[in-house]
């Protein structure tokens, strides 16, 4: 029964992630959701800046700190190892839901594209960014990344092994296609409000900090293999002068 309950817990955490992921597409794109990045009651500028920065900061601290090996080593003294990743995913989803709910819109137009062709291109980039996020997660084992594989193996009484990450598909050209997809989605906006700009700037800053922390852990875990891969493969933008990598680095857990 304990294994069944653990699996159900992981399934609930995965479902929460999927709902929040879909909502985020509508939230950032101002479409098909009751509360988006540019809707809601207006607030004084100082208050909106304070609340929004605090919400992103809360997400950044939870998302990065809980992914660090030292924290996971301490955390699994209290949370069973098969549930550790699902708990991480569930807390991340709840904090993002809080961010969507409490985000304060900030008026003011930074740019407003009206040409139909350019609008179509930007919206195409927007959805391409989200598709890149989802596709990249499958390259590195989607169900392990979001905790479902761990609870399933526990249910089947099979030992867990960390899936190797082969340098393939998008990872042959850039080291962090999943994060690159987020960046594309955050910035590909036909209409960029001041509130959307703040959101994009805060999350872009977090992405760079989080990636630096992740790569530090990967170097410690993989050593020379990851150092070689990193020296041969750009971080976010493909390079025509990229050298072919033959290493097989392991996936990290953050940002």
Low-confidence spans:
245-255
Overall geometry: globular
Q: What strand order characterises the main sheet?
A: 1-2
Largest sheet: 2 strands, antiparallel
Distance between the termini: 33 Å
The amount of helix comes to 55-70%
The run of helices and strands is: HHHHEHHHHEHH
How many discrete structural domains?
A: 1
Task: Find the count of extended strands (DSSP E, 2+ residues).
Answer: 2
Mean pLDDT: 90
Sheet/helix structural class: mainly alpha
Radius of gyration, in angstroms, nearest whole number? 19 Å
The portion of residues forming beta strands comes to under 5%
Number of helical runs? Answer: 10
Structure characterization notes:
- With 255 residues, this protein is mainly α.
- It has one domain.
- 64% of the residues lie in helices and 3% in strands.
- The chain has ten helices and two strands.
- It has a two-stranded antiparallel sheet.
- Helix 4 runs antiparallel to helix 7, helix 5 packs antiparallel against helix 8 (177-187) and helix 8 runs antiparallel to helix 9.
- The longest helix has 29 residues, at 194-222.
- The two termini are 33 Å apart.
């Amino acid at each position: 029964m304990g294994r069944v309950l653990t699996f159900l817990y992981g399934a609930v955490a995965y479902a929460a992630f999927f709902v929040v992921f879909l909502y985020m597409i509508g939230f950032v794109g101002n479409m098909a959701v009751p509360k988006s990045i540019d809707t809601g009651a207006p607030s004084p500028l100082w208050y909106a800046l304070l609340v929004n920065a605090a919400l992103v900061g809360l997400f950044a601290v939870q998302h990065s700190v809980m992914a660090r090996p030292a924290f996971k080593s301490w955390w699994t003294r209290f949370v069973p190892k098969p549930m550790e990743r699902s708990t991480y995913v569930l807390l991340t989803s709840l904090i993002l839901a809080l961010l969507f709910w409490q985000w304060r819109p900030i008026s003011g137009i930074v740019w407003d594209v009206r040409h139909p062709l350019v609008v179509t291109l930007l919206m195409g980039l927007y959805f391409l960014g989200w598709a890149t996020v989802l596709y990249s997660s499958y390259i590195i084992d989607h169900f392990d990344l979001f905790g479902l594989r761990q609870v399933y193996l526990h249910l089947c009484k099979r030992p867990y092994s960390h899936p190797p990450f082969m340098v393939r598909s998008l990872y042959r050209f850039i080291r962090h296609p999943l994060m690159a997809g987020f960046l594309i989605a955050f910035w590909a906006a036909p209409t960029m409000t001041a509130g959307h700009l703040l959101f994009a700037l805060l999350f872009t800053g977090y992405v760079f900090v989080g990636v630096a922390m992740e790569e530090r852990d990967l170097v410690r875990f993989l050593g020379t293999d990851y150092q070689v891969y990193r020296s041969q493969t750009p971080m976010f933008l493909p390079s025509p002068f990229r050298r072919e990598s033959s290493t097989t680095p392991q996936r990290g857990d953050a940002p």
